Amino acid sequence: MDTTKNTPVMRFLTLGGAHVAVMNAPGATSTATHTWQCLGCDQGNDYAQPRTHARQEANRHAAGCRSIPKTTD
Ligand SMILES: [Zn+2]
Questions:
Q1: Which of 33, 34, 45, 64 qualifies as a FRET site for 25, CA 20 to 30 Å off?
Q2: Is 11 in a helix, a strand, or coil?
Q3: pTM for this entry
Q4: Are 24 and 5 a contacting pair, CB within 8 Å?
Q5: Residue list, CB under 5 A from ion ligand 1
């Protein structure tokens, strides 16, 4: 697994249809490997944490966030 890139490894859907991405964390350690960010409202956690924690936080955020996908213009 390449943990050097900030690459989404899973996504959750907010109530408004935006994605919440769990990503490989740059500079990950053996236990702190992932971050997450809502791509609708930009909330997230930039600090590397265990994958399970990042997944749980991202899923919890998606369950209550009403943000819609950002416009691209
Ligand atoms: Zn959000």
A1: 64
A2: strand
A3: 0.86
A4: yes
A5: 38, 40-41, 43, 65, 67
